[in-house]
Known about the structure:
The chain has 402 residues and is α+β, with helices and mostly antiparallel strands. The protein folds into four domains: 72-82 and 321-400, conserved putative lor/sdh protein from methanococcus maripaludis s2 fold (Beta Barrel), CATH 2.40.420.20; 89-97 and 243-319, Efflux pump adaptor protein, beta barrel domain (Elongation Factor Tu (Ef-tu), domain 3); 98-131 and 215-242, CATH 2.40.50.100; 133-208, Helix hairpin bin (Helix Hairpins). Helices cover 27% and strands 35% of the residues. The strands form six sheets. Strands 3-12-15-14-13-16 form a six-stranded antiparallel β-barrel. A four-stranded antiparallel β-sheet has the order 4-11-9-6, with no helix packed on it. The chain has a four-stranded antiparallel β-sheet with strand order 8-7-5-10, with no helix packed on it. Strand 14 and strand 15 form a beta hairpin. The radius of gyration is 56 Å and the shape is elongated. The two termini are 110 Å apart.
Amino acid sequence: xxxxxxxxxxxxxxxxxxxxxxxxxxxxxxxxxxxxxxxxxxxxxxxxxxxxxxxxxxxxxxxxxxxxxxxxxxxxxxxxxxxxxxxxxxxxxxxxxxxxxxxxxxxxxxxxxxxxxxxxxxxxxxxxxxxxxxxxxxxxxxxxxxxxxxxxxxxxxxxxxxxxxxxxxxxxxxxxxxxxxxxxxxxxxxxxxxxxxxxxxxxxxxxxxxxxxxxxxxxxxxxxxxxxxxxxxxxxxxxxxxxxxxxxxxxxxxxxxxxxxxxxxxxxxxxxxxxxxxxxxxxxxxxxxxxxxxxxxxxxxxxxxxxxxxxxxxxxxxxxxxxxxxxxxxxxxxxxxxxxxxxxxxxxxxxxxxxxxxxxxxxxxxxxxxxxxxxxxxxxxxxxxxxxxxxxxxxxxxxxxx
Length: 402
């Protein structure tokens, strides 16, 4: 049994509630709005149909317009072979070309003058130090007197000999007397020679009281002290001969074969760079380190001093090899490569290469390129394989060439 919201007595029916009709003005307004919407939809559809029927179809672009514009304007240069310098690296200490040790030739004499200090430049024969020469000067005076006496004795002996010869011709003097006079003259002559030798010896010892520079150079060490009694042979000074310095560069044994006297060397000491030459290659290699010694002659006025540590780059010319400017080499997937522009083509091709030595902005190419091929110099880092490029004017290409 269904519940009736409006219960009525059994057998009775309820008449439906009559609906009230809307006013006449409202009905006409609704019909007008509906007609306007229909007209608007029709006009829009007609307009779209008209545009679709009358709009012209765009023409296909010409073939030239479909070609991609150049990715970059680049400078190119042909690949050439050139001599590459082979550089041997060595390092070591700056030393004197020859360091002369100057000592005392006489012993037991007192130093009365020291004329130079360490670091002074001296000339050959310049006084370095002087010993007390009073005793030797007296001995030299005695030797001079002995020479004078011997000369007088020889003169008398020669006169006696001459008289004996004259008397012997007239048979007044015997032959025995003549022989005695001849012997006395020879003895006097020998005594004179001995006296002169003793005088020269004393003069030499007297000269040794003056210690002089044996050659031009610089005093690197001075151990002579004023008032000291120096034994014979004791070191007094050290002299850098002719102010010449050199670098003793230690070079690995496998690189010694490429080093020879006269080769150019670049010596590096801090920010200082000095051009030098190989003077000599030592004939032996140290068994402990397997390093050879290369003597590099430093130019005058290098500014280096003995004991400094420097690096040497020994340059020797190697056979000709293909080399390209370093700016042309790019790295793709971790490997070196260059962009090659074939003749008559506008598109570059990426070419893998194997590189060798690098020097002065050039990179040696062991494989991957042939002489005459054109490679991209500028802008290679912004290119990809197959990119279309334009060539720079000749002036820019010349400026970009190495």
